[in-house]
Specification:
heterodimer, A: Rossmann fold, five-stranded parallel sheet, globular, B: about 650 residues, alpha+beta, Four Helix Bundle (Hemerythrin (Met), subunit A), Alpha-Beta Plaits, Helix Hairpins, six-stranded mixed sheet, five-stranded antiparallel sheet, 19 helices, 23 strands, about 25% strand, elongated
């Protein structure tokens, strides 16, 4: 059975690309969220094997969403999607419970490596 | 991977975000104390940066990065932005907008990013007082901050020195190092980290660090676990801190991607983006279907005596194709804000340029129009808005003198009417001086010398004459004489109309009426001689019979009196020069009363045939054609018919 993924990013562009990369590698993208609040809500509903989480999102940001999700499920496997120059925020996300990170611009191979590590 | 497939999505979404930036900047300019605009700006620019970097548009990513940096400084500085900063941000967003458009056509190099210098300067000036780094803020006090190597507990030889070197190309090395430390924490107790963790965040951190770990784990397992964190070039696990000779340096390849390759998982979201051309093609196909449906109905009517079933099938097909058509039309409907949202910025810029104060209000943003109509509407509206600021709103001093608020108001409003949408542009400015226009119109021979006053209609006709301008001097903004005529031609081509209302000292309104959708309209089919003509129902008020209402004349033309109003008549037979081979007009001829805003006209035809849906086809009128046709359609029997343009008749 393929792993299920929840993709969280406020840009459709990014969600499409991540979904394509993961979809082509055989993952099943079961949901998308464009705000942190939606991410938390959908995690509760969908219980995905993996979450990809953008850091900067309207409403509730990615880091707070990580905190909320980890509170619900300490074993949640969350992969942060960050941009260059966001080291401090990524560190904060890791402190909050994120398992790994990838840096935009995404290279499919690196995304898949990170996903494998998180699902380990 | 092939990125070209994402280019359109990139463009569409970048445009949305940059348009939002303009809105936010305007809001910020109005209320510089607010904190939401800057947060929103930061997010939007950040999103554009991420998308551009992914698309490989390095220059856009760089500009957005610097802009983001400036926004961050301003945001964290907590000070209200100066007018210079706001102006700079507007410039930067403009530069980004242009760069995005160029980039998707493969011309990113041509983008003018000279604004970067000013951005960097402003960022330096806005830098807030130093703040503790994120690590310092979020980490517990660092044991390594007071390194005590001599006192490090070396218990039973199981405290090992772990040396890690990250791959040189690894991004965000500090965060990766952090993951390594977290992983190690799960295997044992970390006792000393060098350099201290606070240094991980520094730009100088090169990805080399070491720590002591008190653990019972096997060194090989420890190394494997650390490598699994990713981006690890080398791990050296010492036997123990007393013995610094390296025990193991075996290179274990980092696990590559080995994801399960089963059928591609489908993204489940409730919206998908569809190429507009697809919708256009669908619309064309539906158009043909509607035409064929008309033929089927005609055939069925003939056969119904022989086989009643055929009628039932025809009715079903009619119903289904109508539903289908309706769905496609709905899918093409677009809220007007998609075009209106750029106008607040436009009005602001024009007002600044002309030293005027203008409050701009938009109403009815959610009203929907067919995508194609909306696309065509942008330019005429830009023109009318520029006009309103330039010619409508008076300079603040003049307004004060007239006891008006020095800040003028322009309202752009969309309202849904029966089967059309009315869009009005109203200003509370000086209004149009009819006497002045009349004089000029007489001089240029636009109206006869005996006309004493211009009605709204006549005024518009004069203003809409190509090259007619009342501006004393040609400004950069408007008054070039290519104005209302162009706007009017565009609107008419869309099957719409323009109306003007103006009062000296009070202001001017332009009202644009547009059909909600272009491609398929309900029309009245009328006959004149042997030809059929279609009249879109949008502008048909009612039909009466010639001879049953009192006849009179209006300005020397035949007219009828309809419920106390005089309606001038237009005899289509005369207008089109129908005679000769055509049968003589019947004694009792129907009159189709057209209504366009306040204007009315009665169109006298030979007969009324039916009401049906017609598919509007573009129509390139040969030179010399009467300006009363807006297009053509194919009737159920395959014979073409011309569509009459109500605006040209009323």
């Amino acid at each position: 059975m393929s792993h299920t993924v929840l993709v969280c990013d406020d840009a459709i562009f990014m969600r499409t690309m991540i979904s394509d990369i993961l979809g082509q590698a055989g993952f099943e993208v079961v949901g998308e969220a464009e705000t942190g609040t939606q991410a938390v809500e959908k995690y509760r509903q969908l219980k995905p094997d993996l979450v990809t989480m953008d850091i900067v999102m309207p409403d509730m940001g990615g880091i707070d969403a990580v905190r909320e999700i980890v509170k619900q499920d300490p074993d949640a496997k969350i992969l942060m999607c960050s941009a260059m120059g966001q080291q401090a925020l990524v560190v904060e996300a890791i402190q909050a419970g994120a398992k790994d990170f990838v840096v935009k611009p995404f290279q499919p191979s690196r995304v898949l490596e990170a996903v494998q590590r998180v699902l380990g | 991977m092939d990125l070209s497939q994402y280019a359109e999505l990139f463009l569409a979404e970048s445009r949305e975000h940059l348009s939002a930036c303009n809105q936010l900047l305007l809001e910020w300019e109005r209320r510089p104390g607010g904190t939401e605009p800057v947060a929103g700006l930061f997010r939007a620019v950040h999103t554009v940066k991420g998308m551009a970097a992914t698309m490989g548009y390095g220059r856009i990513a760089d500009l957005s990065h610097r802009l983001e940096n400036l926004l961050d400084q301003v945001r964290r500085g907590g000070k209200t932005p100066t007018q210079e900063i706001i102006q700079l941000l507007f410039r930067a967003i403009d530069a980004l907008e242009k760069a995005v458009e160029l980039a998707v056509t493969g011309r990113e190099r041509e983008a003018d990013l000279s604004v970067i210098e000013a951005i960097d300067q402003a960022a330096v000036q806005s830098r807030p007082a130093a703040q503790p780094s994120a690590l310092a803020r979020h980490l517990p006090p660092e044991p390594a901050e007071a390194p005590t190597p001599a006192a490090a507990p070396v218990s039973s030889g199981r405290t090992r020195l772990v040396q890690v070197m990250l791959r040189p190309e690894a991004p965000l090395k500090g965060a990766r190092a952090m993951l390594v430390v977290k992983k190690a924490e799960r295997i044992g107790a970390i006792q000393r980290i060098q350099p201290p963790m606070a240094a991980f965040e520094s730009d100088d951190f090169d990805g080399r660090f070491e720590f002591e770990l008190e653990t019972t784990a096997d060194p090989a397992d420890l190394e494997k676990a650390i490598r699994a964190v990713g981006d690890v070039e080398r791990v050296v696990v010492g036997a123990n801190t007393a013995d610094e000779s390296l025990v193991t340096t075996a290179e274990i390849p980092v696990t590559g991607p080995a994801g399960p390759v089963i059928g591609a998982g489908a993204a489940r979201s409730r919206h998908i983006r569809v190429d507009l051309r697809r919708l256009d093609t669908l619309m064309d196909l539906i158009g043909e279907l509607v035409t064929e449906r008309g033929r089927l109905n005609e055939l069925a009517a003939r056969w119904v005596g022989k086989d009643p079933d055929i009628d039932e099938v025809a009715i079903q097909i009619s119903r289904l194709s109508a539903d289908l058509q309706n769905e496609i039309i709905q899918a093409r409907m677009t809220p007007v804000w998609q075009v209106f949202d750029r106008f607040p910025r436009l009005v602001r810029d024009v007002a600044r340029e002309l030293d005027k104060q203008v409050a701009f209000r938009v109403e009815g943003k959610e009203i929907e129009l067919d995508r194609e109509i909306l696309d065509e509407l942008g330019d005429p509206l830009v023109h009318l808005l520029r006009n309103a600021v330039d010619h409508g709103i008076e300079p603040p001093a003049e307004r004060k003198k007239r006891k008006k608020d020095p800040e003028g108001e322009i309202v752009l409003a969309a309202v849904r009417e029966r089967s059309s949408v009315a869009i009005s542009i109203s200003d509370d400015g000086r209004g149009i001086d009819r006497a002045q226009i009349l004089e000029k119109a007489k001089r240029e021979g636009v109206v006869g010398p005996h006309v004493e006053a211009l009605s709204d209609d006549q005024l518009l006709r004069v203003l809409a004459r190509p090259g007619f301008s009342t501006a004393e001097a040609v400004t950069n903004v408007s008054g070039r004489g290519v104005g209302i005529d162009v706007a009017m031609t565009r609107i008419r081509a869309l099957g719409g109309s323009i109306e003007i209302r103006t009062e000296v000292g009070k202001g001017t309104s332009f009202i644009l009426r547009l059909p909600v959708t272009l491609a398929i309209v309900r029309a009245l089919i009328a006959a004149v001689g042997q030809e059929r003509y279609a009249l879109p129902l949008t502008y048909v008020a009612e039909t009466v019979e010639f001879g049953t209402t009192p006849l009179t004349t209006m300005e020397g033309k035949d007219a009828i009196v309809l419920r106390d109003r005089v309606v001038p008549l237009v005899d289509l037979r005369k207008l089109l020069g129908t005679n000769g081979g055509a049968p003589a007009p019947p004694p009792r001829r129907p009159v189709i009363v057209l209504e366009m805003g306040e204007r009315r006209a009665g169109l006298v035809v030979d007969g009324m045939l039916s009401q049906q849906e017609i598919v509007v086809k573009g129509f390139d009128a040969p030179a010399g054609t009467l300006p009363v046709f807006s297009g053509a359609t194919i009737m159920g029997d395959g014979v073409p018919a011309l569509i009459l343009d109500a605006a040209g008749l009323v």
